[in-house]
Design brief:
By secondary structure, the chain is of the alpha+beta class. The chain has a single domain, classed as Nuclear Transport Factor 2, Chain: A (Roll). It has 3 helices and 7 strands, in the order H-H-E-E-H-E-E-E-E-E. Strands 1, 2, 3, 4, 5, 6 and 7 form a 7-stranded mixed sheet that branches. Strand 1 and strand 2 form a beta hairpin. The N and C termini lie far apart (71 Å).
C-alpha cells in the first residue's frame, strides 16, 4: 500500500511539473510570436520610407491591403487604385521633387493584438539639394495580417511638429 501511495505521489508531482513546463513553453512561444509580429509591422515603416525615397510606387503599394483607406487633409481614398492615385499626386512622388524620406526611430510605436496591430511614425522629408527638412508628416495606421503578411488597412496622415519629444 505504501508503494502505491508513494508511486501515486511521484506521478502527481511529474504531472504537475510537466503542466508547468508546458505553460512556460506556451508563454515563451507567444512572446516570440509577438516579437516577430512587432518586427514585421515595424518593417512596414522602413519600406514606406524607402519606397517614397526611391519613388517606387509599386513597392509602396505592396504595403496596402486591397480594401485599405488613406485619409489626409480631410479627404479619404479607398482601395488600391484611389490610394495609388492620391500618392502619385503628392509632392513626395513628383518627378521634380528630390526628397529623402527619413524618420526619428524613437517616435515610432507598434502594437500587436493577434492578427491586428497599429503603427505610428513621423516622416521627415529632406530636400536632397538644400539638405533641409522640406516637410514633416505623421502616420497613424491600422495593420492586419492578411494571407501571412502584415499590410496597412487604414492610414490617417497629418502634419507633425519637429520637436525633441
Amino acid at each position: 500500500m505504501r508503494t502505491l501511495v508513494f508511486g501515486g505521489a511521484i506521478m502527481a508531482l511529474v504531472l504537475a511539473l510537466s503542466a508547468c513546463g508546458g505553460s512556460s513553453e506556451s508563454s515563451a512561444s507567444a512572446q516570440v510570436q509577438h516579437d516577430a509580429d512587432t518586427y514585421a509591422i515595424s518593417k512596414i515603416e522602413e519600406t514606406f520610407h524607402e519606397s517614397i525615397s526611391k519613388k517606387d510606387i509599386a513597392y509602396f503599394m505592396s504595403l496596402w491591403a486591397p480594401d485599405a483607406t488613406f485619409s489626409f487633409r480631410g479627404k479619404t481614398a479607398a482601395g488600391i487604385q484611389q490610394i495609388r492615385g492620391t500618392w502619385l499626386k503628392s509632392a513626395a512622388f513628383k518627378p521634380e521633387t528630390h526628397w529623402v524620406s527619413d524618420h526619428p526611430a524613437w517616435k515610432m510605436d507598434v502594437t500587436v493584438s493577434g492578427d491586428r496591430g497599429t503603427l505610428h511614425f513621423e516622416c521627415h522629408f529632406i530636400d536632397v539639394k538644400s539638405e533641409k527638412v522640406a516637410a514633416t508628416t505623421a502616420a497613424d495606421m491600422d495593420v492586419a495580417r492578411i494571407d501571412g503578411r502584415w499590410l496597412i488597412t487604414r492610414m490617417v496622415g497629418g502634419t507633425a511638429e519637429l520637436s525633441p519629444n
